[in-house]
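Sample intake sheet
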Amino acid sequence: MNTKVALRKEAVRLYWQAGLSKAEISRQLKKSRRWVVRWLARYDHEQGEKSLEDHSSAPKHRKEVYPARIKNMALKSRKARKGIKKPHLTYISI
């Protein structure tokens, strides 16, 4: 078992074909029970091995888009700070 997908496939096989419990599979594969539960839940018979591949955890859609005014303010602020070499060391002279 040198790939992640092969290990996940083995967990599914042990559950559906060998009839082992989730706890037994986790002990045999030296993975947590939570890991076994996750991959058994993600497995789809129709997609087969493809359903056991890594999925992106990045959001599919952004919930909120900032108004152009706010976006421009942030960009302007970044440009202004870019010229300062160490902004956190800038002191006010007395």
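Comment: The chain has four helices and no strands. The longest helix spans residues 68-82.
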